[in-house]
Write a structure and sequence with these properties.
By secondary structure, the chain is of the alpha+beta class. The chain is built from 14 helices and eight strands.
């Protein structure tokens, strides 16, 4: 009994010693690998947070490897074969999952290195925002691929999964058609997200007008886009919206914009004096980038003139504030130095004119030529449109219907009646 206990304790002590040595080796490898990476991070300005995630996950993977090696080497001598096989399978699953976790951190670290080469805190950051958008989509797509591959590798560790996979592959054609019809909108948004990432239609931090809202693109995913409006609201739009619906992109080719300020003033306003005031005001404005400056009369109707002022700024936010400042400055100038330009409604008061009375005499009473009267041509026209249709009336003899033998076949009468009857017959015949 003592020999068995001693042997059991020797095996477990060897297992614990191997496990402790493995963990120590894992920490030592992590520390040794961290030294050159820390030097490179300081030299090239790498993101320390991303590098720290890689270091921690790498350390966990090494610890899992140490546990796996110790289990394979010493557990069969301590526990039965079934328990040893189950523990080995569990360690294999943990090792595959932690390896996929580490791979995701490494891919994210390299993506951050690519983004760091294109800073977005510069004045012209169009290329940087395009790279950032594409890297963001690729990072999400790579995470999905790594997750699917890791899950597949874990499932393949179970017995019988290969046979199930073969049977599923045989029916993949019909299943793919059914799944495609069921998830049509999801797949459409997925492909629309990929199209947005590589077509350069929109980028992160682009200023757009979508769905009637003005805002900035905050996030682009594979299925939806988040729009951050000027009043701190977030509007979530599907990716298909930006591939099927027209929208305005104010920073598509550059962030500099031109804006207009319109004022309706009186006709007596002086455009030259307004131009002098505009030049004086813009000279002291830091928001104005100096590219565009114009003041024109674009309309002159309905009792006033329309003054349009064009100014330019480096971005949409600066342009909004500059337009408001210009509008306030010109309104103050009109009140203080040009009150004649304030819009007015003019009304002219006149006396009512007397209506001349009706002329009396032959000239007033005579008949004038009209459409259907007053001339021979008019009367002929009236006869054409107003004459009645002729009605043909039948004679009395034509209305009589003979009831007996014909009059020619009847015996002749004597005297006057006979002559009359003969004339009647002739008339009838």
């Amino acid at each position: 009994m003592s020999d068995a206990l001693a042997e059991f304790w020797a095996v477990w002590s060897s297992y614990l010693i191997a496990l402790a040595v493995g963990v120590a080796i894992a920490f030592a490898i992590t520390v040794i690998a961290h030294i050159p990476f820390r030097f490179l991070a300081r030299r090239f300005g790498w993101d320390r947070d991303a590098l720290g995630k890689v270091r921690r996950r790498f350390r966990i993977v090494l610890i899992v490897v140490a546990f796996y090696v110790a289990d394979v080497a010493f557990l069969p001598a301590v526990v039965d074969d079934l328990t040893s096989a189950r523990l080995e399978h569990l360690h294999r699953i943990v090792l595959i999952a932690s390896s996929g976790w580490l791979l995701a951190a490494v891919v994210a670290f390299f993506f951050r290195l690519a983004v760091a080469r294109f800073p977005v805190d510069v004045e012209d950051n169009r290329v940087a925002r395009r790279v950032q958008t594409q890297v963001l989509i690729l990072r999400r797509l790579s995470n999905v691929v790594i997750g699917v591959v890791t899950l597949g590798a874990i499932l393949l560790t179970f017995e019988g999964v290969q046979a199930v996979g073969a049977s599923l592959l045989a029916s993949a054609g019909l299943a793919s058609v059914i799944a495609g019809l069921a998830a049509q909108s999801v797949l459409a948004n997925l492909f629309a997200g990929l199209q947005l990432a590589f077509s350069d239609a929109i980028r992160v931090d682009d200023v757009v007008i979508a769905n009637g809202e003005w805002g900035r693109i905050e996030e682009i995913t594979l299925t939806y886009v988040v729009l951050h409006t000027w009043d701190d609201r977030r509007i979530v739009l599907p990716s298909t919206y930006f591939t099927t619906t027209p929208f305005q992109n104010w920073t598509r080719s550059g962030s500099a914009l031109i804006g207009a300020v319109e004022l309706d003033l009186d006709w007596r306003v002086s455009p030259s004096a307004m131009r002098e005031r505009l030049d004086e005001f813009l000279a002291g404005q830091k928001l104005w980038d100096g590219r565009t400056k114009a003041l024109q009369i674009t309309d002159a109707t309905n009792g006033w003139v329309r003054v349009r002022i064009l100014v330019s700024a480096a971005n949409s936010g600066a342009l909004w504030d500059l337009r408001c400042n210009v509008r306030e400055a010109m309104v103050e100038w009109v009140h203080e130095e040009g009150p004649s330009g304030i819009p007015r409604q003019r009304v002219q008061m006149v006396e009512a004119e007397k209506r001349p009375g009706r002329r009396r005499g032959r000239a007033a009473d005579e008949e004038h030529e009209g459409v259907f009267s007053g001339s021979a041509e008019a009367e002929k026209r009236a006869e054409t449109y107003t004459k009645s249709m002729p009605i043909v009336r039948p004679t009395t003899a034509q209305l009589e219907v003979p009831k007996g033998p014909r009059a020619a076949d009847a015996p002749a009468s004597s005297g006057t009646d006979s002559g009359a009857g003969a004339r009647t017959v002739d008339a009838d015949d």
